[in-house]
Every structure is written in C-alpha cells, then in structure tokens.
Amino acid sequence: MLAQPDGSPVSDPRAYAPLAAELHENSKFSRDRQANFAEPVQRFETDLDRLRGGGDRFGKASAVVLDDEPLPLAPLGELAARRRSHHGTWGDTPLTRRSLATILRVGVGTTGMHRPAPSAGGRYPVECFVAVTDVDGLDPGIYYYAPHALELRRIDPDDPAAALRKSCMQPEDLEGAGAVVVLTGVFSRSTSKYAERGYRFTLLEAGHIGQGICLSAEGVSAGSLCLSGFYDHELDGLLRLDERVESVVHSIVLGAAGERPAGS
Ligand SMILES: Cc1cc2nc3c(=O)[nH]c(=O)nc-3n(C[C@H](O)[C@H](O)[C@H](O)COP(=O)(O)O)c2cc1C
User: Fold this and answer.
1) How high is the mean pLDDT of the chain?
2) Which pLDDT does position 10 carry in this prediction?
3) Which residues contact 82 (CB under 8 A, 6 or more apart)?
4) Per-residue pLDDT at 232
C-alpha cells in the first residue's frame, strides 16, 4: 500500500482538499470526454493565431526592447545541480538589465512562433508580468513582457516595492530584491479547448516557465525564489488584471544572490 514517508497510510485526498480532488477527477481524459473535445477545438481553431501571438497586448504602453545580447550560460546540467531557492537577505549588487533580459529570454521570450516552454495545444495561456523594483538600467514599475517582441511594456510607472511587500505573506522575502516575475493564467485559452483539464495545463505551463526562469537566474548568478505566499486578489489588483479572465498563478522573486553559505 502507498505510504507517507513516516510509514503512515496515505489519506484519501478528499479529506484535505475536496475541491482539488473533484477537479482532478473531472479533468481526467476518458474516452467519452476526450471525444467531446473535437467540437470546441474546431470552434476555437480560428482564434489560434491571435492567441499565440499575444502581439499587441499593452501595445500602446511605453516599451523597453530587451534585445540585449544574452549573457552566456553554463551547461544545463551544471545549472540544474547548482540551483537553490534564495532565502534570507538579498545581495547588494543590483540585478542588471542584461541579466533580466537573459532570464526572460530563456524562460519566456522568443523571436519566432515557438517559445522556450511547451504549451498544451499551443494555447499559451500563461502571460508574464515583471514588477521591477531595483534593476540597474531599468526604471521601477510594473511591466508586461511581450514574448515575441522581447519588450517590457510599462503599465504602471510607480515603484511597486511597497505594494508588492504588502501583497506578500512574508514581505521580508522581497526586501532588497530586484524584480518579481509574475505569471498569470488566461484560463479560457486552454479551457476552451480542454475544459477542466485546461486548468491543470495552465498551472503546469507556469511551472515549466518558472523552472526556465530559475535555471537562467542561476546562469546569470542571480538568486531566485518561487513565491506562492501572496494574497491573490491584491496581486491581481496590482497588475490591474480583469480577474474574471486572468489571475496570478505563480511568482518568482529575483535578486542579487550574494554569498551562499558553504555547502548549500
Ligand atoms: C510552487 C512553489 C511555491 C513556493 N513558494 C514559496 C514561498 O512562498 N516561500 C518560500 O520561502 N519558498 C517557496 N518555495 C520554495 C520552496 O520552499 C523550495 O523550493 C524548497 O524548500 C526546496 O528548496 P530548493 O528550491 O532550494 O531546492 C516555493 C516553491 C515552489 C515550487
């Protein structure tokens, strides 16, 4: 029988999170449910190019093109072996624009149709925002990252540091950080094709992107910390999202790593 690490039996998942168990059950592919996907696929096929492109979102906002030559990265195996979550005080040297450009390029950006992270059915339900608080070469503010244009489009010019700290459960994690990459889900891009399973896909895809960001942060010697301890409505509000269609699903704090304790 499946057991917990301490040997005790694994509980029925419905005991802890009945809605999650319900969602999981209802998002399983089955022969009859899979067959039902054919109709929505055809219905939404025509929208695909527009969905994939995401081209003009915030297109009128003032933009910074992050076409900096990406910094060279160590081989993937080395980065994977070195990656750690950054806990504690952030280092003194600010993150640079080129470091951030490299991180976003590796995790999210593309100049062609294909992106670094895979997306179920090519629906690309995950969007990327960046709250810049202390990055050398960039004004503080909240930006939308347009993945194809490699552009940071500024949607709020105010320094978001105080509001970010307020929306986080452990504000000390943000003290001295350089930027927070905030990934949002536009769920209907995926659910319109995959119904409940599209919700799973959106979260999975945010995880794919998040890993790319963490590894590339390691590659440019920055620190990264995935942060789930935020107040959702407040962070959604900070990004001015229309919560009926889009919500924050993941966030990654970036900053100067500083000295890592020996052996960690
Ligand atoms: C989805 C997700 C959410 C996380 N949220 C937090 C968080 O809110 N606060 C925090 O200190 N660490 C957070 N972490 C980091 C984990 O605590 C960390 O990955 C774990 O302890 C393993 O350590 P490592 O990343 O250094 O290997 C999160 C990690 C993931 C993947």
Assistant:
1) 89
2) 85
3) 74, 218
4) 98
Protein residues whose CB sits closer than 6 Å to any atom of ligand 1:
84-85, 173, 225-229
What the block records as the tokens of 233 is 């409505």
Nearest CA to ligand 1 atom 7: 227
Nearest CA to ligand 1 atom 15: 226
| Domain 16-256 class in CATH | alpha beta
DSSP H helical segments within 127-185, as ranges? Answer: 161-167
Residues 120/50, Cβ–Cβ less than 8 Å: no
pTM given for the model: 0.92
**Rounded distance between C-alpha atoms, residue 66 and residue 105, angstroms:** 8
Domain coordinates in residue numbering, the chain: 16-256
Task: Among 87, 181, 226, name the best residue to mutate to test ligand 1's pocket (greatest count of ligand atoms within 8 A of Cβ).
Answer: 226
Query: In the structure encoding, which two tokens stand for residue 137, read together?
Result: 């070469």
Buried b (16+ CB within 10 A) or exposed e, 208-239: bbbbbbbbbbbbbebbbbbbeebeeeebbebb
Query: Which residue do the tokens 């009926």 mark?
Result: 244
Phi-psi region of 72 (alpha: psi -120 to 50; beta: other; left: phi over 0): beta
DSSP conformation class of 172:
G
